[in-house]
Amino acid sequence: MALGGDLVPARPFTPKNGGDSGKGSRRTGYMSDDTRDTASATDRQASLARLRQRIDTIDAEMHDLLIERSSIIDELIAAKQGGRKGAAFRPAREASMMRRFAGRHHGTLPLVTVEYLWREIISTFTFLQAPYRLHMPTDRRPSELRDVARFYFGFNVPLLEALDADAAIASVAASETDLALVPLVDGETPWWQGLTRPDGPRIIARLPFFTSNDRPADLPAVVISNPLDDPTPPEWRCYATAAGPEALDALSGVDILAATPAGTLFALATDRDPETFATDAGLPPLKPAGGFAAPLSIDGDPSQQKSQTE
Ligand SMILES: C=C(O[C@@H]1C=C(C(=O)O)C=C[C@H]1O)C(=O)O
Protein backbone atom coordinates (compact mmCIF):
# COMPACT_ATOMS: atom_id res chain seq x y z
CA MET A 1 0.00 0.00 0.00
CA ALA A 2 1.31 3.44 -0.85
CA LEU A 3 2.37 5.58 2.04
CA GLY A 4 -0.60 7.49 3.38
CA GLY A 5 -3.02 5.54 1.15
CA ASP A 6 -5.57 5.34 3.94
CA LEU A 7 -5.58 9.03 4.63
CA VAL A 8 -8.87 10.84 3.94
CA PRO A 9 -8.36 14.43 2.75
CA ALA A 10 -9.68 16.94 5.27
CA ARG A 11 -13.00 18.50 4.09
CA PRO A 12 -13.16 22.29 4.30
CA PHE A 13 -15.44 23.49 7.13
CA THR A 14 -18.73 25.00 5.79
CA PRO A 15 -20.82 26.67 8.47
CA LYS A 16 -24.56 25.78 8.38
CA ASN A 17 -27.32 28.46 8.29
CA GLY A 18 -25.08 31.16 6.79
CA GLY A 19 -22.46 30.64 9.47
CA ASP A 20 -23.57 33.19 12.06
CA SER A 21 -20.29 33.53 13.81
CA GLY A 22 -20.55 36.91 15.51
CA LYS A 23 -18.21 39.62 14.14
CA GLY A 24 -18.15 38.36 10.57
CA SER A 25 -22.00 38.36 10.20
CA ARG A 26 -22.68 41.98 11.18
CA ARG A 27 -23.74 44.22 8.29
CA THR A 28 -21.77 47.45 8.68
CA GLY A 29 -21.44 49.04 5.22
CA TYR A 30 -21.38 48.60 1.49
CA MET A 31 -19.10 45.56 1.82
CA SER A 32 -20.04 43.08 4.52
CA ASP A 33 -17.41 41.86 6.97
CA ASP A 34 -18.00 38.46 5.43
CA THR A 35 -17.07 39.76 1.97
CA ARG A 36 -14.11 41.69 3.39
CA ASP A 37 -12.89 38.61 5.27
CA THR A 38 -13.28 36.51 2.13
CA ALA A 39 -11.40 39.14 0.11
CA SER A 40 -8.52 39.33 2.54
CA ALA A 41 -8.42 35.52 2.82
CA THR A 42 -8.20 35.38 -0.99
CA ASP A 43 -5.39 37.99 -0.89
CA ARG A 44 -3.55 35.97 1.71
CA GLN A 45 -3.94 32.80 -0.36
CA ALA A 46 -2.66 34.62 -3.43
CA SER A 47 0.38 36.05 -1.67
CA LEU A 48 1.11 32.66 -0.07
CA ALA A 49 0.94 31.05 -3.52
CA ARG A 50 3.29 33.77 -4.90
CA LEU A 51 5.79 33.23 -2.06
CA ARG A 52 5.68 29.46 -2.56
CA GLN A 53 6.27 29.95 -6.26
CA ARG A 54 9.34 32.07 -5.50
CA ILE A 55 10.61 29.36 -3.13
CA ASP A 56 10.02 26.68 -5.80
CA THR A 57 11.94 28.75 -8.36
CA ILE A 58 14.84 29.25 -5.93
CA ASP A 59 14.83 25.53 -5.07
CA ALA A 60 14.97 24.57 -8.74
CA GLU A 61 17.90 26.97 -9.26
CA MET A 62 19.73 25.58 -6.22
CA HIS A 63 19.10 22.02 -7.43
CA ASP A 64 20.40 22.88 -10.94
CA LEU A 65 23.51 24.44 -9.38
CA LEU A 66 24.16 21.35 -7.25
CA ILE A 67 23.84 19.16 -10.34
CA GLU A 68 26.23 21.49 -12.17
CA ARG A 69 28.63 21.42 -9.18
CA SER A 70 28.67 17.60 -9.28
CA SER A 71 29.42 17.61 -13.01
CA ILE A 72 32.84 19.10 -12.18
CA ILE A 73 33.86 16.07 -10.09
CA ASP A 74 35.27 13.98 -12.94
CA GLU A 75 37.51 16.86 -14.01
CA LEU A 76 38.54 17.37 -10.37
CA ILE A 77 39.54 13.71 -10.03
CA ALA A 78 41.60 13.96 -13.23
CA ALA A 79 43.27 17.17 -12.03
CA LYS A 80 44.20 15.56 -8.71
CA GLN A 81 45.57 12.39 -10.30
CA GLY A 82 49.02 13.93 -10.59
CA GLY A 83 49.23 13.65 -6.82
CA ARG A 84 49.50 10.55 -4.63
CA LYS A 85 46.67 8.06 -4.45
CA GLY A 86 44.55 8.53 -1.38
CA ALA A 87 41.90 10.59 0.28
CA ALA A 88 40.56 13.60 -1.60
CA PHE A 89 40.26 15.83 1.49
CA ARG A 90 41.73 19.28 1.30
CA PRO A 91 41.16 20.65 4.83
CA ALA A 92 42.85 24.00 4.12
CA ARG A 93 40.57 24.56 1.12
CA GLU A 94 37.52 23.59 3.19
CA ALA A 95 38.57 26.09 5.87
CA SER A 96 39.01 28.88 3.32
CA MET A 97 35.57 28.10 1.85
CA MET A 98 33.98 28.37 5.32
CA ARG A 99 35.79 31.65 6.02
CA ARG A 100 34.49 33.04 2.75
CA PHE A 101 30.93 32.11 3.77
CA ALA A 102 31.41 33.77 7.16
CA GLY A 103 32.71 36.91 5.44
CA ARG A 104 29.78 37.26 3.00
CA HIS A 105 26.95 36.00 5.21
CA HIS A 106 23.99 38.20 6.18
CA GLY A 107 20.30 37.86 6.92
CA THR A 108 18.41 35.73 9.40
CA LEU A 109 19.69 32.31 8.33
CA PRO A 110 22.10 31.15 11.07
CA LEU A 111 25.66 30.83 9.76
CA VAL A 112 25.87 27.39 11.39
CA THR A 113 23.06 26.25 9.08
CA VAL A 114 25.16 27.34 6.11
CA GLU A 115 28.09 25.41 7.60
CA TYR A 116 25.91 22.31 8.03
CA LEU A 117 24.50 22.43 4.49
CA TRP A 118 27.94 22.85 2.96
CA ARG A 119 29.47 20.16 5.14
CA GLU A 120 26.93 17.72 3.67
CA ILE A 121 27.80 18.96 0.16
CA ILE A 122 31.58 18.93 0.67
CA SER A 123 31.58 15.50 2.37
CA THR A 124 29.46 13.98 -0.37
CA PHE A 125 31.60 15.51 -3.10
CA THR A 126 34.79 14.29 -1.40
CA PHE A 127 33.19 10.85 -1.04
CA LEU A 128 32.30 10.82 -4.74
CA GLN A 129 35.95 11.54 -5.58
CA ALA A 130 37.37 8.83 -3.32
CA PRO A 131 34.98 6.82 -1.09
CA TYR A 132 35.86 6.69 2.60
CA ARG A 133 34.42 5.60 5.93
CA LEU A 134 34.48 7.37 9.27
CA HIS A 135 35.66 5.41 12.34
CA MET A 136 34.25 6.64 15.61
CA PRO A 137 35.26 5.47 19.10
CA THR A 138 32.30 4.64 21.30
CA ASP A 139 33.97 4.78 24.71
CA ARG A 140 33.57 8.52 25.38
CA ARG A 141 30.49 10.72 24.78
CA PRO A 142 29.35 8.54 21.82
CA SER A 143 25.99 10.21 21.16
CA GLU A 144 27.50 13.73 21.12
CA LEU A 145 30.31 12.46 18.90
CA ARG A 146 27.77 10.94 16.50
CA ASP A 147 26.10 14.36 16.21
CA VAL A 148 29.47 15.90 15.30
CA ALA A 149 30.08 13.07 12.81
CA ARG A 150 26.75 13.60 11.07
CA PHE A 151 27.02 17.41 11.17
CA TYR A 152 30.45 17.40 9.50
CA PHE A 153 30.26 14.28 7.30
CA GLY A 154 26.57 14.00 6.53
CA PHE A 155 24.65 10.80 6.00
CA ASN A 156 26.28 9.49 2.82
CA VAL A 157 29.54 8.56 4.55
CA PRO A 158 29.43 5.16 6.34
CA LEU A 159 30.01 5.51 10.08
CA LEU A 160 31.84 2.63 11.77
CA GLU A 161 31.95 2.21 15.52
CA ALA A 162 35.32 1.41 17.12
CA LEU A 163 36.01 0.29 20.67
CA ASP A 164 38.25 3.27 21.43
CA ALA A 165 40.47 5.91 19.80
CA ASP A 166 43.38 3.45 19.39
CA ALA A 167 41.16 1.05 17.43
CA ALA A 168 39.74 3.89 15.29
CA ILE A 169 43.26 5.16 14.45
CA ALA A 170 44.45 1.59 13.66
CA SER A 171 41.54 1.21 11.20
CA VAL A 172 42.57 4.46 9.47
CA ALA A 173 46.20 3.25 9.27
CA ALA A 174 45.04 -0.01 7.65
CA SER A 175 42.92 1.84 5.06
CA GLU A 176 43.72 4.07 2.14
CA THR A 177 41.17 6.83 2.50
CA ASP A 178 39.29 6.32 5.81
CA LEU A 179 39.03 8.92 8.57
CA ALA A 180 38.67 8.76 12.34
CA LEU A 181 36.83 11.24 14.53
CA VAL A 182 38.13 11.38 18.11
CA PRO A 183 36.65 13.53 20.88
CA LEU A 184 38.95 15.89 22.76
CA VAL A 185 38.00 14.67 26.20
CA ASP A 186 40.58 14.13 28.93
CA GLY A 187 40.96 10.46 29.74
CA GLU A 188 43.27 7.89 31.21
CA THR A 189 45.22 6.83 28.15
CA PRO A 190 47.33 8.97 25.80
CA TRP A 191 45.54 7.70 22.67
CA TRP A 192 47.44 10.20 20.50
CA GLN A 193 50.55 8.04 20.63
CA GLY A 194 48.99 6.32 17.60
CA LEU A 195 49.48 9.63 15.73
CA THR A 196 53.23 9.85 16.09
CA ARG A 197 54.35 6.87 13.96
CA PRO A 198 56.34 7.72 10.78
CA ASP A 199 53.96 8.09 7.81
CA GLY A 200 51.05 7.03 10.04
CA PRO A 201 47.70 8.79 10.57
CA ARG A 202 47.73 12.44 11.61
CA ILE A 203 45.26 15.09 12.76
CA ILE A 204 43.95 17.01 9.72
CA ALA A 205 41.13 19.11 11.19
CA ARG A 206 39.76 20.38 14.45
CA LEU A 207 36.00 20.56 15.04
CA PRO A 208 33.82 22.48 15.44
CA PHE A 209 35.18 24.84 12.81
CA PHE A 210 32.77 27.69 13.55
CA THR A 211 32.96 28.14 17.31
CA SER A 212 30.21 29.78 19.30
CA ASN A 213 28.83 29.75 22.84
CA ASP A 214 25.62 28.27 21.54
CA ARG A 215 25.90 26.00 18.56
CA PRO A 216 24.76 22.44 17.82
CA ALA A 217 27.26 19.57 17.55
CA ASP A 218 29.81 21.37 19.71
CA LEU A 219 31.78 18.47 21.23
CA PRO A 220 35.46 19.30 20.52
CA ALA A 221 36.98 16.64 18.29
CA VAL A 222 39.78 16.03 15.81
CA VAL A 223 39.62 14.42 12.37
CA ILE A 224 42.40 11.93 11.64
CA SER A 225 43.59 10.70 8.25
CA ASN A 226 46.60 9.10 6.62
CA PRO A 227 48.95 11.85 5.36
CA LEU A 228 47.24 13.97 2.70
CA ASP A 229 48.37 15.65 -0.46
CA ASP A 230 47.22 19.09 0.73
CA PRO A 231 49.83 21.64 -0.35
CA THR A 232 48.63 24.30 2.13
CA PRO A 233 50.36 23.99 5.52
CA PRO A 234 48.12 23.96 8.61
CA GLU A 235 47.87 27.06 10.82
CA TRP A 236 48.28 25.05 14.03
CA ARG A 237 50.65 22.10 14.31
CA CYS A 238 49.92 19.32 16.77
CA TYR A 239 52.53 17.72 19.00
CA ALA A 240 52.62 14.99 21.62
CA THR A 241 54.80 15.33 24.69
CA ALA A 242 55.42 13.11 27.69
CA ALA A 243 55.11 16.24 29.88
CA GLY A 244 51.85 16.82 31.76
CA PRO A 245 49.58 19.78 30.89
CA GLU A 246 50.89 21.88 33.82
CA ALA A 247 54.22 22.26 31.93
CA LEU A 248 52.37 23.96 29.04
CA ASP A 249 49.47 25.73 30.72
CA ALA A 250 50.97 29.18 31.01
CA LEU A 251 52.80 29.26 27.67
CA SER A 252 51.61 31.53 24.88
CA GLY A 253 50.78 30.21 21.39
CA VAL A 254 49.78 26.86 22.91
CA ASP A 255 46.39 25.17 22.75
CA ILE A 256 46.09 22.05 24.92
CA LEU A 257 43.91 19.52 23.08
CA ALA A 258 43.88 16.57 25.49
CA ALA A 259 45.88 15.53 28.52
CA THR A 260 46.57 12.61 30.83
CA PRO A 261 49.06 12.43 33.70
CA ALA A 262 51.27 10.53 31.21
CA GLY A 263 51.36 13.16 28.52
CA THR A 264 49.74 15.97 26.59
CA LEU A 265 48.51 16.50 23.04
CA PHE A 266 48.71 20.18 22.13
CA ALA A 267 48.71 22.55 19.20
CA LEU A 268 51.34 25.18 18.58
CA ALA A 269 50.82 28.26 16.42
CA THR A 270 52.91 27.91 13.25
CA ASP A 271 54.83 31.11 13.97
CA ARG A 272 56.48 29.27 16.89
CA ASP A 273 59.49 27.10 16.09
CA PRO A 274 58.82 23.74 17.83
CA GLU A 275 62.46 23.04 18.73
CA THR A 276 63.07 26.46 20.26
CA PHE A 277 59.72 26.21 21.99
CA ALA A 278 60.56 22.80 23.53
CA THR A 279 64.00 23.96 24.68
CA ASP A 280 62.64 27.21 26.18
CA ALA A 281 59.85 25.30 27.97
CA GLY A 282 62.25 22.62 29.22
CA LEU A 283 60.27 19.90 27.40
CA PRO A 284 61.60 16.65 25.93
CA PRO A 285 61.63 16.59 22.08
CA LEU A 286 58.14 16.99 20.64
CA LYS A 287 56.52 14.35 18.44
CA PRO A 288 54.57 15.78 15.45
CA ALA A 289 50.94 14.60 15.34
CA GLY A 290 49.44 16.61 12.44
CA GLY A 291 47.83 20.03 12.29
CA PHE A 292 44.68 21.97 11.50
CA ALA A 293 43.27 25.21 10.14
CA ALA A 294 42.42 27.75 12.86
CA PRO A 295 38.73 27.48 13.86
CA LEU A 296 36.72 30.69 13.51
CA SER A 297 34.70 32.26 16.31
CA ILE A 298 31.34 33.47 14.98
CA ASP A 299 29.96 34.96 18.18
CA GLY A 300 30.30 38.44 16.64
CA ASP A 301 28.22 37.41 13.61
CA PRO A 302 24.90 39.33 13.67
CA SER A 303 22.78 36.48 12.30
CA GLN A 304 24.32 34.08 14.78
CA GLN A 305 23.68 36.47 17.66
CA LYS A 306 20.06 36.70 16.62
CA SER A 307 19.67 32.92 16.63
CA GLN A 308 21.29 32.78 20.07
CA THR A 309 18.79 35.13 21.66
CA GLU A 310 15.75 33.25 20.35
C1 LIG B 1 36.56 19.64 -4.42
C2 LIG B 1 37.64 19.36 -3.73
O1 LIG B 1 37.79 18.27 -2.87
C3 LIG B 1 37.10 18.15 -1.68
C4 LIG B 1 35.72 18.62 -1.83
C5 LIG B 1 35.42 19.95 -1.71
C6 LIG B 1 34.11 20.51 -2.19
O2 LIG B 1 33.21 19.76 -2.54
O3 LIG B 1 33.99 21.74 -2.26
C7 LIG B 1 36.35 20.80 -1.09
C8 LIG B 1 37.54 20.35 -0.60
C9 LIG B 1 37.91 18.93 -0.64
O4 LIG B 1 37.83 18.33 0.61
C10 LIG B 1 38.78 20.27 -3.91
O5 LIG B 1 39.89 19.87 -3.65
O6 LIG B 1 38.57 21.43 -4.29
UniProtKB/TrEMBL annotation:
UniProt superkingdom: Bacteria
- The EC number on file is 5.4.99.5
Which SUPFAM superfamilies did the record assign?
A: Chorismate mutase II
PROSITE patterns from the entry? CHORISMATE_MUT_2
Region Disordered, residue ranges:
1-45, 277-310
GO BP annotations of the record are: chorismate metabolic process
What InterPro entries has UniProt attached to this entry? Chorismate_II_sf, CM_dom_sf, CM_II_prokaryot
Ranges for domain Chorismate mutase: 42-133
Pfam families to which the protein is assigned, alphabetical: CM_2 (PF01817)
- Gene Ontology MF terms: chorismate mutase activity
Q: Which SMART domains match?
A: CM_2 (SM00830)
- Transmembrane stretches in the record are none
- List the protein's name: chorismate mutase
Please report the organism this UniProt entry assigns to the protein.
Rhodobium orientis
